[in-house]
Amino acid sequence: MTLRHRLVLVWTAIALTVAGVNAFRMASNAIEEAGAIDAAAAGEDAGAPLDPPTREAELLGKFTIALGGLSAFGPVGGGTEVLLNAQLLAEDDAPTSHRLGYAVLLGEVSGWTEGAEFARGIEAESNDDSARALAARVAAAMDARAVDPAAMPPADACAEFERSLGYFGRVLCGGGQAEATRALLGVVGAGAWYGLTALLGAGALVWVLVALFGASRASRIRPADDRGAAVLLGETFVVWLALFYALNLGGGLAVQKLTDALVSDPEATGTSISLAFSFVAFFLSLAALAYPLLRGMTRAELLRLCGLSRGAGLAREALAGVVCYLSAVPLLIGGFGVFFLLNWLSQQLLGPSPSPSHPAAELIGGASGLELALLFAVASIAAPIVEEIVFRGVLYGHMRSVVTPRVRWLSILASAVLSSAVFAAVHPQGLLFTPVLGGLATGFALSRELRDSLIAPMVAHAIANAVTLTIGMAIMGS
User: Fold this and answer.
1) Using one digit for the tens of pLDDT, what is the confidence trace for 57-78?
2) Which residues contact 75 (CB under 8 A, 6 or more apart)?
3) Which end of the chain has the least Cβ crowding within 10 Å, N or C?
4) What contacts 136, CB < 8 A, 6 or more positions away?
5) CA atoms within 13 A on the CB side of 139
6) What angle do CA 211, 212, 216 make, to 5 degrees?
7) The whole model's pTM is what?
8) Distance CA 147, CA 230 (A)
9) Three-state SS letters, 217-277
């Protein structure tokens, strides 16, 4: 088989993997959403406990409560205007726990009588015994608070409301304001952080671009000496994709089955076990690097092409990682701008679509200390090391050697953007979110080009994930 045919097969495999991952994700989301709607409409599993609100729904509720509290002190708007932010919770096809959560928000912001009326409407419409009973109890609790705002439900009722409605249950029982304030302060803090880092990052990005494309042309990367080595890197990336998904899908399912069979309380420990397995699976996937060695590439050439070196020394490369992170933030913010535009166009053409989400978002709010430690280990140690080796090392090294290598500036930009697009597209946030993660990854790729070492992108990647998790904890309440 010729090198050209092998190269075509490499990119066909990459394209099919990206398409397959996203098709599977969209199909799973559609099936889950359709099942929830059908169950709500048909009253299936009557008498079974309702699913509690999602973390995103609770976060929306916290913002609504916080803005409602601020409306008396500034131009935030009255109760009706504040509640517009939470209208998604009140949609007819929303889960019952979300609709009852909106009833609680309506009661807290506009008056408990209005909230009780909305809850009684849910009771009248529902075909599910559990939903009707819960709606009736919520309405009764709000009726009592309408007569006397200090008349809180008894402790056992509050415990039930919290189990069924999460944050909204705590609001119904007189709590929730501190959580709402902390969430709002978390958002303000995140805005301040990204505002400051964007200002610093603009200068850092200009410095990186001038260093790469200015008179000094400071790039240290030397593409592969022959096309065969470049194609071999592409094949290595495909092998990694296959191994990574085999470990995470097949291995993850096996670990889940073993946990259910062998652990006395899988619900309490299952998440920790899954996170620990994910940490190990990340590093096991690096076994794919044996492929080019088995095909005749020398260890020294593999390390050089992938940027696996100490560069200018660990300390200097780690400091360069901070600059790398700063330089990537403006690209991240620009990616958000593109995302909002694409999301708006998608809603105009196709109707409302689910917001981008990551499995970690559902975990953060209610995670134990051990789960948070494991989550940070996966996100800020395993993922940065492995993903930088694979995407900014193997894939970027492959592309720099095959995409117009003689036209240096075009090769750098095309390789950075295309490898970053692949990186973003296989993440669980969805295709519309690709410009956001792709912008961040492009910043990492430019620093990889400048340093010819993966240490700086690894440090930047670790900072980015740690900051995201910390902000998530501040907002969602861990």
Assistant:
1) 888 899 888 887 665 444 444 4
2) none
3) N
4) 119, 120, 123
5) 17
6) 60
7) 0.87
8) 75
9) CCCCCCCCCCHHHHHHHHHHHHHHHHHHHHHHHHHHHHHHHHHHHHCCCHHHHHHHHHHHH
